[in-house]
Amino acid sequence: MQAQLTQQGSISVFIPKAHHRFILGKGAENLKSLERKTGAKISVPKINPDANAEDEPITITGAKEAMQGTVRKMTLKIS
């Protein structure tokens, strides 16, 4: 039997705060759905009115393929 290793890691994605609501969705349903579909863990920073849009990135953690799929799906949601 041969086991296949999956590369794990995390990436930070800078998305303007005005678009975070599209990633989250009502009651964070979009976020939960993305996590279920991709298998990645997504961390969206809490709203901080004093911070700039680039100050707090969205962090995606998981397998390389899951992270790539999550970035693609997030890009589609905000475009």
Explain how this protein is built.
The mean pLDDT is 85. Strands 1-3-2 form a three-stranded antiparallel sheet. It contains three helices and three strands, in the order E-H-H-E-E-H. It is α+β, with helices and mostly antiparallel strands and 79 residues long. The longest helix has 15 residues, at 64-78. The chain has helices at 20-24, 29-38, 64-78, and strands spanning 8-13, 41-43, 58-63.
What's the quick description here?
The chain has 79 residues and is an alpha+beta fold. It has helices at 20-24, 29-38, 64-78, and strands at 8-13, 41-43, 58-63.
Secondary structure category? alpha+beta
Helix amount: 25-40%
Strands side by side in the biggest sheet: 1-3-2
H/E element order: EHHEEH
Cα gyration radius (Å): 14 Å
Largest sheet: 3 strands, antiparallel
Report the end-to-end length measured between terminal Cα atoms.
Answer: 44 Å
> How much is the average pLDDT?
85
Low-confidence stretches: none
- What gross morphology would you assign? globular
The total count of strands amounts to 3
**Residues in β-strands, percent:** 15-25%
- What's the number of helices? 3
